[in-house]
């Protein structure tokens, strides 16, 4: 439904941002009994589009999410959750491709150790700007450290006089 709505409403041009928008709308569609346009707008707030503009994307959101319908994911929800839990990272990892490395810490302490050992590394959270360095400016990123698996980097805590938001939230 969401992907078709993006097509029907012309919600994608270059396609770079489309997966993020589709997944945000999919989550909205699955987690609400029928979202109103304000909820759809809020669900898309963390996504950036540099070419389409937001009107067609918001139209797609309204078309796909404002009326909840059963789909193929409903029947397999429990199995999907089980599979996702099974592949959740359990330890710090490293991915290599030729001379490029992506380090995947799970804790702040691991991040500090990895960054200390690789001070030239680029930190990767959402990747909006960093990805443009690769695609638009053709820069090499030989070492990246992805911070999205670190629980403390994705937290939101409300204090008495403060609000603490993790850097990868």
TrEMBL record:
InterPro entries: 2Fe-2S-bd (IPR002888), 2Fe-2S-bd_dom_sf (IPR036884), Ald_Oxase/xanthine_DH-like (IPR016208), FAD-bd_PCMH-like_sf (IPR036318), FAD-bd_PCMH_sub1 (IPR016167), Mopterin_DH_FAD-bd (IPR002346). Gene3D superfamilies: [2Fe-2S]-binding domain, Uridine Diphospho-n-acetylenolpyruvylglucosamine Reductase, domain 2. One of its GO terms (molecular function) is iron ion binding. Residues 2-61 form the [2Fe-2S]-binding domain. Residues 102-169 form the Molybdopterin dehydrogenase FAD-binding domain. The keyword Flavoprotein applies. It comes from the Bacteria. Keywords: FAD, Flavoprotein. PANTHER family: XANTHINE DEHYDROGENASE. This is Xanthine dehydrogenase small subunit. It comes from Aquicoccus porphyridii. The lineage of its organism: Bacteria, Pseudomonadati, Pseudomonadota, Alphaproteobacteria, Rhodobacterales.
């Amino acid at each position: 439904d969401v992907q078709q709505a993006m097509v029907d409403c012309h919600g994608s041009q270059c396609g770079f941002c489309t997966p993020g928008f589709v997944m945000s709308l999919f989550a909205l569609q699955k987690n609400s009994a029928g979202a109103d346009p304000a909820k759809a707008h809020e669900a898309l707030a963390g996504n950036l589009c540099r070419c389409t503009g937001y009107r067609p994307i918001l139209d797609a959101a309204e078309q796909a999410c404002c009326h909840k319908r059963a789909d193929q994911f409903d029947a397999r929800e429990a199995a999907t959750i089980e599979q996702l839990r099974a592949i959740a990272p359990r330890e710090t990892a490293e991915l290599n491709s030729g001379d490029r490395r992506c380090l995947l810490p799970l804790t702040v302490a691991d991040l500090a150790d990895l960054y200390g050992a690789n001070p030239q590394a680029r930190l990767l959270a959402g990747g909006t700007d960093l990805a443009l360095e690769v695609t638009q400016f053709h820069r090499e990123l030989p070492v990246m450290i992805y911070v999205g698996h670190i629980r403390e980097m994705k937290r939101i805590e409300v204090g008495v006089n403060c609000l603490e938001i993790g850097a990868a939230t």
